[in-house]
Structures
1.
Amino acid sequence: MNALAITAAAIFVSGCSNNTDDSDTAGQDAGTPAAKVCDGTLDPAASAALRRLAGSDRFDELTGTNEAGEPNIFSLTRAVKHLHDEYNKRSACRLYKSGDNSGQPLLEVRFSASSNHPSASAAESGSDRVSYPLGVYALAGSNGADLFFHCPTKATTSGASVDDTNYVKAEMSAIANNLDGNSVNKDRMVVLNSMARAVAKAAGCASTAALPTQVPEANGS
């Protein structure tokens, strides 16, 4: 897990957006509803999961630009474009609860090309981690969740840091103790799986990714 990404992200909190949705009813907080964050990659189940994790339905994404000189706000197109690039050039969805001035993002998700994936035996559920039968490897732990899926991609950008690969890694930084609800592990995986399905479709590998529309129960349940 890349818990450092959450800490580093906190310094940018002053750059968070504060968008409103004209269709919202009066009295609701400013910000973007769950269904519209992360470039609309959250399906209804994932939107509900995010609301449970946050205890809120309003979110802000980081504004400004990243090291690629592109907007920090998550984009499916940019996520696929930069799969093979270095960490700080990848498109990340970094979410804050709207109105939360702590500087601590609720979660961060980004995608990267990978030449391999952890072995299934290493994903056995334990006291602080839970594995799921998704893709080729899926694990939720105390600091977030990882999901690897089969998705052959080529390094098409100049200066790519990763060569052609057969897998994509979906990585979520989201500390379990900072989240709400009674299903933190599964809810994080539901959010990650929904975003991964959208990336797989955009990358042209949806048929091989082995990412179902509904997240199954954890291994060993």
2.
Amino acid sequence: MGNTFRKTVRNMNQRYQKQPNEATLSSNQKKRLFKQTKMYILVQEILESLEEHHLKHNETIRSFLPLTNDGANISFMTSGIMGLYHPKSKKAKKYVNDFHDLRGNRLFIFTSQRIIFMTIIEYLDQELFYTYPYDKIETITLKKNTLGYFDWEKGFPPARKKMYTYFFDFECDNAIFSELFSEMDGKIVLEQVNKIEEMKHIAVSEEVYRQRAFDALLNNPLFGYRVTKFISYGLILLFLTFLIGLFFGMGPFAVYLR
């Protein structure tokens, strides 16, 4: 079925980028047209509110991306206990009733002067959002990742497939933003970095940049992933060495297993 928020924002973003919308509605999409239309109107109202009340003089929205709990995005901060939220306003309560979402749907926005990040329900409830000016960002991490997996949908043997994602990270003053984008969204990010004049000074790297050594170790998702991967391989090697000692009497465990 797909995510209504993700589809709506992507279709709207094509208009902001002045790209033709070539999407055609299937029969299943037509059945969900009313819900998608409501989501379209809601997101359009949010963008208009942002432009009218919060953007600076001559600041314009250049592009935006949907972040959700499904797909490639990082969701551990918006699911489970971290995803709980108690809406107070009528608008936010209506949003929960219509779309059954709390903190899952988020918007990542490029303007001509800064990055804006918001959780939809928080903006509806409090007009709360987070801002990261380009002149405060020194380096952006944009690293393409490849994930191999087996597709069992067509039965046995499974088809070997690959999924591509982009790890995105930057530090702005004392704030750190990290996210995982789909291949499509990662390419849009790269386009904006190259197109927006105010971002030309920002270096693009595959390594995470931190001003403090403490943050480089403890607030570095890429480093944490590499450590976890190293430990996983080490445990697998240790287990294989144990099996060799158990069944073949070879290796460092052979003496202890006699």
3.
Amino acid sequence: MSFDQRKVTDNWAAVDYDRDVWFPIPIVFEGTKWADAAEWAFDYAGDRVRRAGHELTKKVVKKEVLPFAQSLVVARHELAGKAAAHKLFFDCRDSTKIPVAVGIGLWKRVGTREEAFQYYGYWGAETATTQPAAEWFETEALGTGVRALWSGYSEESGQPGRYDQANYVFRDDGFDTDVHIFTYAWDHQRFLDVLPDLDALARAVRCVPDPDKV
């Protein structure tokens, strides 16, 4: 048995996320309201700049919205189709906040519950510089899972330095699905700010039949 050979679940998941906090990062644009990454990024950059209290004048669009949108396009390019996730979101209440990406992996069950919790809970911990702190995490939709937090040091992704990571893992036997929710951030305070939002997001995930197969 190897988690390295795991497969995507035959089912799916719905996420009832808070639109004031989160916005989706499309992995593909087919079936969305956006034609491409530039259109998606401009849409949310404008929204978050507006939430920061700025009127979207031509000057503000040029000086704030467009650079923010460009940074979102670059960040999405680094994530979509590359991260071990089937759903991606940014935590970003307004343009004064650094967007923090969160991935949700939806995997067909492999191994025992304990083995899955160990694998996904400590996924990425090979670069940890602190002992991962794991605790039980209760949700209504997914039952009891595990939340693990730690700090580490990495020279990958062209941004060497200290980071913080969080992993959440749940097993939904009824949908034959292991749910892995994860994030990491290079800014410690921003990571701490995001954690309450991330707890809420984890409780907003529920497994559902794959809508494309219904």
4.
Amino acid sequence: MSEPARGPSPEPGPADVPQWINDLVPIAAHARALLRASAPTLALAVAAVLALPQLTPFSAPWMAAVCMVLGNVVALRHGGRNASTDDATDVGGNTTGSRATADTRAEVGARTQSTSGTSAVIAAGELRPGGRTGALLVVLDLLLTATGVAALVGLALAGTDRPLLVAAAGAAAGLAAGVGTVAGLELSGRRARGAFVVLAVAVIAAVVYVFNRLGPAWWWVLALAVVADAVGLLALRAGARNDRAPTRPGVP
């Protein structure tokens, strides 16, 4: 007997997609919107770290200052409870990111509403608790990594001693500053942004002074990386708690 002909295998439906993939889609879209909005700020930082080594023989403090300004500007602009994806358009004046995010959220919501989905947040086409903060932390990491690579190129072209150490120390200081600001905003609320601006200026001035007096060291880089990771976990927990908390009208 001949075997019965088999029809084509059915395409995987929404129920066949792992839930963690559905959870990551709006987070990735939000991160993409933040990257687009931060592009002008990143371009200015990259130009600065490329030019500074050619202008000053001891550029370590200024490289760290540029990286810390970048981290704090992005964190202050997009960090804090109820920071929406639309905020990502204000820094660079780009609305494409928010539209793409909204379209992606709507598509994810349409796909998952027909399933027994375990996440009501994703079914509504929104970020999971903590996703907003996680996306911002990833963006900070990407921005400071790119700036650190550009700093390494600028330092190497200028013939600076220990260019890898100077670039790594600056990028680590910028990441620690940005992550610390995100954590502070999640813990204290966006109304405290004015205080964090003053604190950021004071910290940048202190770091520039220390870098100028002592010079960077590899143990600094390691310590700053450990601090950034620990504070990042704290920011994630605080962000997830804030996202779960009910939002009262008129309360930021």
